[in-house]
């Protein structure tokens, strides 16, 4: 049954959300005749939303009150912003929110810069986690400003531990030669695949055969960032036989184990066995570092490297106005000849 005019409505939002129903009230009309909505809250079910809407119509309350807690603000942020940010951003926002549990019930206007800094300093983790918590508070402050809950921005005052220097060591030419000598050993082909594609271990294990185009000589895959998702990487001529052989095996995944997707934990067991045989000490992610380093040393175009790695170019001009063709990517990747 349709609600009376001016009563308000409950609408379901797209995507996988914890509270997918938006409860809203029309408070006016813009110059184009479109309604201007006041969002009251987000609920798990339509029934909860209708109850909340009935309660509001019976006794309206001020939605933008100074009584807004951190928990309520974060729930509203999820409802407004979840569909506009990457899965990675949404994930670390939820994790960072948990690190701020001491202030969940605080009124947001009562949370000061030193409270925020305490959640960073006492999280018990290093640069990566501390920086994510710092970004979380910046998002909260910015959203609170949008809702006219606060007029300050403490997030810009926060600090985190400095990034530690990476200890990752790219594969040497000798180490790569060793991998080629051992290529008949089980799963060594996966190490060579990583070395000549730049995929992350999780991206490799997630690759389905449907994402491999042998005719075009390309693989489409990648996760984590907007720039990294569904990127196209040409199949290097040196590993084409590896890809072709894997395509002939059972299973829907390119690197299947017993006909099923190989899990990360299982794969790392294979990795350790390979490294012990080769008498090397490398991690799977160091293949990705090696890929970029070898392309750079071979003189490959930086934009082509960024595209194949799934990185955004730091140069806005390059990022927006340069469009590299597949032939250019192939030419870049084939500059690595060993």
What this model shows, in words?
The protein has about 350 residues and is mainly alpha-helical. The protein folds into 3 domains: about 1-65, no CATH class; about 65-165, DNA polymerase, domain 1 (Orthogonal Bundle); about 175-335, Orthogonal Bundle (hpI Integrase, Chain A). The protein is about 45% helix and about 10% strand. The strands form 3 sheets. It has a 3-stranded antiparallel β-sheet. A 3-stranded antiparallel β-sheet has the order 4-5-6. Strands 7-8 form a two-stranded antiparallel ribbon. A hairpin with an 8-residue loop joins strand 1 (about 10) and strand 2 (about 20-30). The longest helix is centred in the middle third of the chain and has 20 residues, at about 125-145. The N and C termini lie far apart (about 70 Å). The relative contact order is 0.08. Mean pLDDT is about 85; it is low at about 315-320.
